[in-house]
Amino acid sequence: MPQPGNRALGATLEGLELNGNFANMSGRNKAGESRTKPAAGLATLLLCGTVLAGVPATAFAQTATGEGQQEAAQDPASAPEPIDNTIRTISVVGAERLEAQTILSYIRLRVGQEYTSAGADAALKDLGATELFSNFSIRNDGGNVVIEVTENPVINRIILEGNRRLKNDKILPEIKLAPRQIFTRSKVRADVARIIELYKRQGRFAATVEPQMVMLPQNRVDIVFEITEGPKSKVRQINIIGNEEFSDGELRGAMVTKQARWHRFFSSNTSYDPDRLAFDQQQLRAFYLENGYADFRVVSAVAELTPDKEDFIITYVVEEGERYKFGDVTVESQLRDFDSDRLQSGLPMQTGDWYNAKQIEDTVEQITELAGTFGYAFADVQPRFDRSREDLTMNVNFVIREAPRVYVERVDVNGNTLTQDKVVRREFRIAEGDAFNSLQVARTTARINSLGYFQENFEVNQAEGSQPDRIVLEANVQEQPTGELQLSAGYSSLERFILAASVRQRNFRGRGQTVGLSVNWSRFSRSASISFQEPYLFNRNISAGVDIYRREFNSFNFRSRDRNRTFEQSTTGFQLRAGVPLTEYMSFIGSYTLNIDDISLDENVYFSDFDGDGIRTCEPLFAGRFLCDAIGKRTSSIVGGNIVYSTLDSRLRPTRGENVSLSTEVAGLGGSVKYVRVRGQAAKYWPVGAGFIFSLSAEGGAINSLEDSNRPGFDDVILTDRFQLGEPRFRGFDIRGVGPRVIRQPYVDDGEGGVVALTERNQVVDDALGGRAYYLGRAELEIPLGTGARELGLRPSIFMDVGALFAVTKPILQDNPNGIQQRNTDGDLVYLTRLRDENGDVVLDPVTGNPRFTSTTDAIDPEGVANAPSIIQGSRFREVFLGDSISPRVSVGIGVNWNSPFGPFRIDFARVLRSQPGDDTKRFTFNVGTQF
Fold first, then answer.
1. Closest to 912 (Cα-Cα) out of 771, 781, 772, 804
2. 807 versus 79: which is more confidently predicted?
3. What family is this (predicted)?
4. Residues near 294 by Cβ (< 8 Å), separated by ≥ 6?
């Protein structure tokens, strides 16, 4: 019996190409073959009048054609019996991971239904929509429907190659494909487009992505995205057409996008960004509106990519329009607490002034803030404009709509998991039930930001309460790490190599307490300290703290250009302090300090027994009288008070506000040191636009002893208690490079029987004495950089420093052109006499033939010739006192702060414009690994 013909149905997924050939990812499926009996065979069966078998329907909605059907149509009596196309079974072949029932759930064919071509086509579409199969087909064997599938592979790995500018952690979270997912071509297509979009946002419009697929055993694949990043597309030129009143340069200055030039290598604004292009159109409009051109518009903005895909040329076509002046400017207030006439008299714009849209925005903001201070949190200020094109004037009416006075219904603190609620709530300057005040809310925001516990730019949110006259204040915080563990090594031009280790927790147990432990070591200093700070003692607005420390400091002078250790100071002590607020912006801090100081000199270098009494003492000839006077053990018992006024927006990195402090310390309530020391400091910061921050600061101090020794050449304020000035506080000068000093100048023979003193800096010994008074002023402008440099933590600035250190008792100076004669242990003067042998003859040097000499206490030799005095080596010098002048020293320069991975880095280039004799200048300084 002839078997009925059948047709297998198949589906083929074609290859994919995106920005390059999709190698190895083209479909490997075969089209279903169609096997159908010839039409003549069917006609023969029809002529016999016997139907042996029905022709099954196929998945394609195709009708058989041929002579047999035509003849059947002509002879209805000979038509075959109806064919039974009922689906008896549905089976799945080829599934590996997916269950057969899962695959069947994707299609609408069911057992008992009639098998039709339309139904089979719909089933194929359903299988294709799942994107789970690389090859699939449906066939009907006499009611037994067989679904053959080849599953898509499972992704083993996602590999990125060639991405240097965008790292994996920036790309992988943005794409859809991931390991252990089913591979689909649509996801690959979307991921390629997404990666290219990421590069476009960086200005790399020439970037291409070529996806590759590596086949692995067990139907697994590795997906490789081969990335060619290409150069960063810069803005080569910005053209502006239609501007007549303002030059191209003025308009480019108003834009954020800048033309690529060599001096903008730090700027990220030279790359093309479509979003920035739209923003620059708003900037152009704002620029013209600030200058009175109310009808200005940007007709078109076109960015053209050069053929090499490396640069863009941007062209703006603008229409300036006419320039307007202010007409009538009025205020209409519907609030009972606001007098329209008084508000109108205080407006910054007047009739006849050039129209300025920025002034109007600022005025609306100021009136809104003013209304907020009176409790109108939802005050609505709307400027209404009446433009007169005839006389080119703009009438403005500020309408303050009626609004209820608002009260704080409640304060919510959200997001704090470690920090206790009270730590945040105690910084609020406004309480539940108080009348709303926008100034107090702004102050609260500043205080919470200054804690440093939460995200940057935190703001107190305002939400409507249960009634129209109620408001809810929300502090939605995001906690940041407050613990610090630092292990660092660095180098500074001040202290050479530095090792530091510290542990600090600024929010200990979530209570706002600060606990710290630090250890530091360098060539000239060593220290260890433990500290604790409680900002709210017993939940009251009283701060308290304690520091316990041990410090060792090796002072030095400059012998030529080399540092030479002089005295060593070790200090052991503690400090107790407590502070109370006097006003919102002013506080008083009291302290008590107890220090035990031990100042010593190297006895092998600076001690001698010149008088022959058997006791070695500090010898001014070697150390200088000022150093000999400083050595010894002392106890300092110090009571201090400090008044601080601060409106800074941030204690860590202020951008606006001012800070003023005045402190007094009195030593003498016990201990062996008695003095009064006063210090003052003031600083003010201004944001001057475009990210620039200008600051002025000044400080000064004076110390006066409460004892009077009446000793000539002796200052009653010991050396270690005096002020010092120089690097790093006074840039352009070396450490202790400013102020009173003693310079020891050696004498040398002039070759004519006389002596001359050497005065070059690299030939003298320089000892800084410090001073009892000083002042220091600084003007600095912080320069903003592009986004890339800002992310690196680079903050350059230009500065000018002015200051002086002065007021110390002039010490007794030494002047020894002939040197100082030696003495023996008995105190007798020592002379040099010619060495004689047993016969009394003078012994000659066998090489030079000159007489040899030996020491003696006789002033006259046996022949009656005067013996030459034995001069102490290095005693031929004179001491010069310099630098004790109130006259200002001035330096200017440029510096860069960098929050490097190795710690804070500061580099300064300074030029001294004005100095005094004796000052030690230094043009270049840098410090890494420590912060001063």
1. 804
2. 807
3. Belongs to the BamA family.
4. 321, 324, 355, 357, 387, 394
User: In angstroms, rounded to a whole number, what is the distance separating the alpha carbons of residues 128 and 193?
Assistant: 22
In sequence order, what DSSP letters do the residues of 738-785 get, joined into one string?
BS-EEEEEEEEE-SSS-EEE---GGGSEEEE--BSEEEEEEEEEEPP-
Buried b (16+ CB within 10 A) or exposed e, 587-608: bebebebbbebebebeeeebbb
Residue 675, Cβ density class (10 Å: 0-12 exposed, 13-18 middle, ≥19 buried): buried
Q: Does CATH number 3.10.20.30 belong to domain 154-228?
A: no
pLDDT, tens only, 242-271: 999 999 999 998 898 888 887 776 677 788
- Contact (CB, 8 A) for 296 and 317: no
Report whether 359 contacts 349 (CB < 8 A).
yes
pLDDT band at 822 (very low <50, low <70, confident <90, very high): confident
Distance of CA 902 to the CA centre of its chain: 14
Alpha carbons 408 and 444: distance in angstroms, whole number = 14
Q: Check if the beta carbon of residue 112 is closer than 8 Å to that of residue 145.
A: no
Single-letter amino acid, residue 316: Y
Specify the 3-state DSSP secondary structure of 433: coil
Helices (H) and strands (E) in the chain, counts: 16, 43
pTM of the model: 0.62
Question: If you ran DSSP here, which 8-state letter would residue 77 be given?
Answer: G
The number of residues in the chain equals: 932
For the domain covering 726-820+871-931, report its CATH number. 2.40.160.50
Q: Do domains 154-228 and 325-401 have the same CATH topology?
A: yes
DSSP string, 566-635: EEEEEEEEEEEEEEEESSSSEEEEEEEEEEEEEEEE-HHHHEE-TT-SS--EE-HHHH-HHHHHH-EEEE
Output the six-digit token pair for 42: 């069917």
Mean pLDDT of 690-718: 91
Per-position b or e across 869-891, b if 16+ CB within 10 A of its CB:
bbbbeebbbbbbbebbbeeebbb
Tell me how far apart the alpha carbons of residues 740 and 885 are, in angstroms, rounded to a whole number: 8
CATH number of 234-319: 3.10.20.310
Domain 86-151 is of which CATH architecture?
Roll (3.10)
The sign of the CA dihedral 603, 757, 735, 489 is negative
Cα 602 from Cα 631, distance rounded (Å): 11
- Would the CA dihedral through 728, 733, 735, 736 be positive or negative? negative
Question: Per CATH, the architecture of 407-476 is what?
Answer: Roll (3.10)
Q: Describe the chain by its helix, strand, coil percentages, rounded to 5.
A: 15, 40, 40
Strand partners, 485: 503
Asked if residue 669 lies in contact with residue 676, where contact means CB atoms within 8 angstroms, the answer is no
Output DSSP code: residue 706.
Answer: S
Please check whether residue 571 is in contact with residue 595, taking contact to mean a CB–CB distance below 8 angstroms.
yes
What is the CB neighbour count within 10 angstroms for residue 447? Answer: 15
Kind and range of the H or E run holding 326:
strand 325-333
Model confidence over 58-96: pLDDT tens digits?
343 333 334 344 444 444 445 555 567 888 899 999 888
Yes or no: say if 402 and 334 are a contact pair by the CB < 8 Å rule.
yes
User: Which residue type occupies 300?
Assistant: S
The Cα diameter of the chain in Å comes to 171
Q: Report how far residue 358's alpha carbon sits from residue 286's, in angstroms, rounded to the nearest whole number.
A: 8
Question: Alpha-carbon distance 96 to 465, whole Å?
Answer: 59
Beta bridge partners of 702: 678, 773
Q: Which of 47-51, 63-67, 544-548 has the highest mean pLDDT?
A: 544-548
Domain regions of the chain by residue span: 86-151, 154-228, 234-319, 325-401, 407-476, 726-820+871-931
Give the Cα separation of 648 and 656 in Å (integer). Answer: 6
394 and 322 in contact (C-beta within 8 Å)? Answer: no
> What DSSP state is assigned to residue 454?
B
Give the Cβ contact number of residue 251 at 10 Å: 20
Architecture of the domain spanning 325-401: Roll (3.10)
Q: Which two three-digit tokens encode residue 399?
A: 């309408």
Contact 32, 10 (CB under 8 A): yes
